[in-house]
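Researcher: I'm preparing a figure for a lab meeting and need a structural model of a single chain. I don't have an experimental structure, so a prediction will have to do for now. The sequence is pasted below. Please return the structure as tokens so I can convert it later.
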Amino acid sequence: MNIEITEQLKSIVDSSRILADEPMRAHTTFRTGGPADLFIMLKSIKEATETVRLLLAHDIDFTVIGNGSNLLVSDSGYRGCILCMGMDDIKTEGARITAGAGAMLSRIAGTACENSLTGLEFASGIPGSVGGAIVMNAGAYGGEIKDVASSVTLLDIMTGEVLTRSAEEMEFGYRTSIVKQYPYIVLEACFELSAGDKAEIKEKMDDLARRRREKQPLEYPSAGSTFKRPEGYFAGKLIEDAGLKGFSAGGASVSEKHCGFVINKGDATSSDIISVIRTVRSKVAEKFGVTLEPEVVMLGEDMQL
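Model: Understood. Here is the structure written out token by token.
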């Protein structure tokens, strides 16, 4: 990226938040991934809109990320600019919570609990941010983002316009939304909750946390559930029944605690992880005729399945 464009970026974003050759292993929960040419941490809607407009004007490739909890980046890195949505303000007004795209779901759920608001308990253990949760309609334990989101503020990449869409207009579905179909970037979201009992809300959140610890390999880096739930099946059971419990490639492995998770045992590369994912898909398709679709977003030229 030439000096002129870098200087223009510094007029929008503080230089301390513009990093060259930044290792993506520091920004993904898999703890793998090579360097991005440029990594920019955005802290406001103004910074996000102006940065995107500048990159588009100069035809520079970019990818938007949040907490990196659903992302697998190639070991060779990313040739372009990573925009990390760091807007994490959380505001409460009555039963409504408004949060920036970079706010962690766990923080929002905690804020709801402190204000005796119920509806977000299911999200308290999801290790993602608002932006990613909106994009994929994140869910757990019977709850989904679509159940509580009332409106979303978006940046239209094609026009540079900031717009607001209602929950109905977001076209939420299983692990999808309108953001997967159109060139939008999530900037902010509003959640409409209900009054509840703080002690009961906390008890439910504590119970879900206990169930997660018991059933999920939280002690290892991962991206959570690696595969979407195929209709009529459970991915974890298919993988276990295919004899792949504990299957490893390099430092990556199918978790023995929950076969729906591919984990980094400590020294895995992204190549190891994608190798496990490919083998799991192949073996499950061969044995059961079911094609598992990854929930994980893969970034990089050699990340194709």
